[in-house]
């Protein structure tokens, strides 16, 4: 079999992986706080006794596009957006610490501050509990104050403070559940007091739908090119076999 088939096959496989990532990005254009997935590839020369005339395509470390998404002002007190590179800290279903930019917060039936998917929002001292029926206000520094029904402004009480962190982009990675976690070996994150919170707003996805559609078309054409290379190599092999069988 012609070695060109292996070269084209590696390129086709990576193109399919790239297309899957682009499709996932396009499906999350309306997901609050979503960070576009980025797949990186590199060419690796084939090492052998023959001359290095071929290269395989290999995936490098996948990452995410960390640029900020657009803000939508909702005027809802429990909606928060983070300025800069800050992240909200939440408790994942497995009990580990995870990070998200999705700031559509809610109060659960048992009085816990949670995300829209039901994950507990972490404060400086752990999960944040809210008095039942209280009116919640979130300050620009992440301080959460509550006022009971019928109470005046003098009855404001601080119930917690959002645990806001600012990890280096290369220290966190996206999990299968969409949450970001520290990479193995990364240093534990400390609270960053410089992160500012915009109350009454939600950050949207940073995926550009037009760019995603262009990438999908480009990937489809690239995959088609790889398939033509495989078909061409197969045709060459069949003709070579015919010539050999005629001798």
Automatic annotation (TrEMBL):
Residues 199-243 form the Flagellar basal-body/hook protein C-terminal domain. Pfam families: Flg_bb_rod (PF00460), Flg_bbr_C (PF06429), LlgE_F_G_D1 (PF22692). One of its GO terms (cellular component) is bacterial-type flagellum basal body, rod. The keyword Plastid does not apply. Residues 81-146 form the Flagellar hook protein FlgE/F/G-like D1 domain. InterPro entries: Flag_bb_rod_N, Flagellar_basal_body_rod_CS, Flagellar_FlgE/F/G, Flg_bb/hook_C_dom, FlgE/F/G-like, FlgF, LlgE_F_G-like_D1. Keywords: Bacterial flagellum, Cell projection, Cilium, Flagellum. It comes from the Bacteria. One of its GO terms (biological process) is bacterial-type flagellum-dependent swarming motility. It is found in: Bacterial flagellum basal body. Residues 5-35 form the Flagellar basal body rod protein N-terminal domain. SUPFAM superfamilies: Flagellar hook protein flgE (SSF117143). Belongs to the flagella basal body rod proteins family. NCBIfam families: FlgEFG_subfam (TIGR03506), flgF (TIGR02490), PRK12640.1 (NF009280). The basal body constitutes a major portion of the flagellar organelle and consists of five rings (E,L,P,S, and M) mounted on a central rod. The rod consists of about 26 subunits of FlgG in the distal portion, and FlgB, FlgC and FlgF are thought to build up the proximal portion of the rod with about 6 subunits each. This is Flagellar basal-body rod protein FlgF.
């Amino acid at each position: 079999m012609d070695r060109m088939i292996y070269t084209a096959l590696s390129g086709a496989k990576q193109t399919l992986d790239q297309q899957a990532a682009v499709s996932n990005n396009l499906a999350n254009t309306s997901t609050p706080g979503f960070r576009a997935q980025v797949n990186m590839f590199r060419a690796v020369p084939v090492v052998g006794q023959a001359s290095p005339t071929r290269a395989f395509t290999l995936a490098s470390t996948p990452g995410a596009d960390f640029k900020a998404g657009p803000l939508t002002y909702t005027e809802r007190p429990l909606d928060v957006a983070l300025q800069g590179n800050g992240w909200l800290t939440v408790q994942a279903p497995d009990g580990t610490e995870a990070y998200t930019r999705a700031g559509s917060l809610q109060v659960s039936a048992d009085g816990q501050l949670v995300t829209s998917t039901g994950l507990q929002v972490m404060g400086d001292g752990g999960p944040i509990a809210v008095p039942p029926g209280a009116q919640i206000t979130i300050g620009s520094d992440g301080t959460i104050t509550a006022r009971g029904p019928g109470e005046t402004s003098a009855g404001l009480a601080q119930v917690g403070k959002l645990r806001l962190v600012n990890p280096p982009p290369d220290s966190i990675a996206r999990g299968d559940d969409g949450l970001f976690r520290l990479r193995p070996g990364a240093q534990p994150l400390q609270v960053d007091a410089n992160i500012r919170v915009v109350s009454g707003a939600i950050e949207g996805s940073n995926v550009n739908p037009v760019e995603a559609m262009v990438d999908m078309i480009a990937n489809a054409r690239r995959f088609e090119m790889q398939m033509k290379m495989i078909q061409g190599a197969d045709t060459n092999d069949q003709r070579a076999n015919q010539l050999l069988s005629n001798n």
